[in-house]
Amino acid sequence: MRRMIGLVTMAVIASCLTLARADEKTPDGTIKLSAGSIAVGVGVSWGSGTLSYKGKDYPIDVKGLSVGDVGATKIEASGKVYNLKSIDDFNGNYTAVAAGAAVAGGAGVAAMKNQNGVTVELVTTTQGLKLALGGAGVDMKIKQ
After folding, report:
1. Short-list 129, 125, 20, CA closest to 82
2. pTM given for the model
3. I want to staple 27 with a disulfide (CB 3.0 to 4.6 A). Which of 6, 15, 65, 80 is the partner?
4. Element at 60 (helix H, strand E)
5. What is the pLDDT of residues 69-121, one digit of tens each?
6. Using the 8-state DSSP alphabet, how is residue 73 labeled?
């Protein structure tokens, strides 16, 4: 029974992520994020990340992404970026397309989109953690 529920859950997540990027099949870029320790019930403002786009790496600031788990000391997430036509389109406030789900192996997944139509799909690489977006979304921008 648990296996069936797990398969159904994965199918729903896959459907949500497919809808989030229906027009794009190949990512325009990739993203990697990392953060330090968190306390019980406290969200994390991600301090560092890298956007890889057209063969170049851009350092980014991320604020408003939290982790729905306790006791983690190092958190990492990576993902794909879609509909990025220009590096300037990356900056903005990202709101949930699909978020907070868990995939096989316990990784958390979040899909979010900004005002420019850029979609980011993130998966935690730290097992057992779920990503959650803050109430006002997630602000991401290229560091100047």
Report:
1. 20
2. 0.70
3. 80
4. strand 56-63
5. 555 556 788 999 999 999 999 999 998 886 454 444 455 677 899 999 999 99
6. S
